[in-house]
Amino acid sequence: MLKLINHPLITHKLSLIRRKETGTRDFRQNINEIAGLMAYEITRDLPLREVVIDTPLSSCITSELSGEIILVPVLRAGLGMVDGITSLITTARVGHIGLVRDHETLVPTEYYAKFPSDISGAVVMVLDPMLATGGSASAAIGAVKKRGAVTIRLVCIVGAPEGVTRVEKEHPDVDIYLAALDSHLNENGYIVPGLGDAGDRLFGTV
User: Fold this and answer.
1) Per-residue pLDDT of the chain (206 residues; tens, 9 = 90+)
2) Radius of gyration (Cα) for the chain, nearest Å?
């Protein structure tokens, strides 16, 4: 269920976004590039259909993606991963879900949701750079299930064991993709060593 994606380029770019001195522009660029690199592994088992096409020289039998892909970034940090994936999967549609987390109880509340009309037959990828307590991720997964999603993948860049455990418990049918599994959460629910608040660093609101 948990799939850790190891690649030298991802590891290098993770080091860049972890550094506290990395500015908004470089942080945003590297988040997008990591998401794009992760897309290769996330889409490894997507279904294909056989088609016949004409090349400049002859016809041939080949394959194309047979299903639909829908990306659902969790606002606002998840937006930082969309361009990196859609640059490779240009036909992907994008829904959005907004969740706000109470800083004391850490309980997420949905304040916005907009999805394509029918997501039941698609591969739905929930995007959020950080999997910390797992509360927001679990709520987002629950939201897309409520709208009919069946095949769901949670795509995060950095995760904590606490978040992984929660998602696995509450949504055992959902695969989790991470570029890094960090040590633990601190008393404020932040991932250690982590990379800080991904939303603030993406949008320069630190």
Assistant:
1) 899 999 999 999 999 999 999 999 999 999 999 999 999 999 998 889 999 999 999 999 999 988 899 999 999 899 999 999 999 999 999 999 999 877 777 678 899 999 998 899 999 999 999 999 999 999 999 999 999 999 999 999 999 999 999 999 999 999 999 999 999 999 988 999 999 999 999 999 97
2) 18
Rounded CA-CA distance 1/142 in Å is 17
Evaluate the CA torsion angle 46, 86, 100, 149 in order and state its sign. Answer: negative
Cβ atoms 31, 157 nearer than 8 A? yes
Task: Determine the Cα–Cα distance for residues 67 and 200; give it in Å rounded to an integer.
Answer: 34
Q: What are phi and psi of 71, to 5 degrees?
A: -95, 135
DSSP string, 178-201: ESEE-SEE-TTS-EESS-S-HHHH
* Enzyme catalytic residues: 101, 105, 197, 200
Half-sphere exposure of 93 (CA within 13 A, CB side): 14
Which amino acid is located at 154 in the chain?
L
Q: Where are the beta strands (DSSP E) in the chain?
A: 2-4, 48-54, 59-65, 69-75, 93-94, 96-101, 108-114, 123-127, 130-131, 151-155, 158-159, 175-178, 180-181, 184-185, 191-192
Residues 45, 69 contacting (CB under 8 angstroms): no
Q: Give the number of other CB atoms < 10 A from CB of residue 20.
A: 8
